[in-house]
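[User]
If only I could read C-alpha cells as easily as an amino acid sequence. I have put the entry right below:
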Amino acid sequence: MISDSYHISFVLKHSDISTNTAAISASNETGSYWTAGKQYTSYRINMKALCGEMWDKYDTFVLRLNQVSYGEQGGTWALSNRDLLMIVRMSGLNFVNSTYDIKSGNNTGRYNLCLLNIANSNSGTINYGSNISVCNFKKSSDYVDIVLECIRCSDGLPVQYNANVMPHMVYSFDIYPIE
C-alpha cells in the first residue's frame, strides 16, 4: 500500500549540470554529466539526503514522473522527424519490475519512463497523469546514478541531433513509500 502520509518531490534538470545549451557534453562537481548532446544524462543523487527519514523507514518506493519540460533551442535540433518521437529510458535504480525486452526474453534492468513527441524548435511541457509513468524500486545504496537516455521509438537507437544539440530538459518526480 502506498503511503499517502508523506512523499517527496524532486526535479532533475540539465541546467544543474551546465547552463550551456550548445554543449555536446558537460559535467559538474557532483559527478552528474551529459554526453551525446544531452541524449545520455547521468545524475548523481544522494537518496538518503533526498528522501530523509522516509529512506530509513521504508524499503520499497514508487517513483512517479509528473512532468517533462524542454527549452527552445533557437533552431532545428533534430536530424530528422523520427528523432522527435522518443522514449526516455531510465536506469540506476533497483527496479522491482523493469522493462521487458522481447528480443532477449528478459527484463532489462531499465525502465521506459515515458514517450515524448517534442517540437523541433519550440519549448514545451508535457504533464503525465497519476497512473501514467509510475515504477517501483527497492532501496539499494544511499548514492545512485540515475541515467536518462533518449532513444528513438522507430529503431531504439539514440536520438540524433543536427547542428544544434538537443534542448535542455527538466523532469519533475514524486517518490512515495510503500508500506
User: Anything to note?
Assistant: DSSP finds two helices and 14 strands in the chain. The CA atoms of residues 100 and 106 lie 6 Å apart.
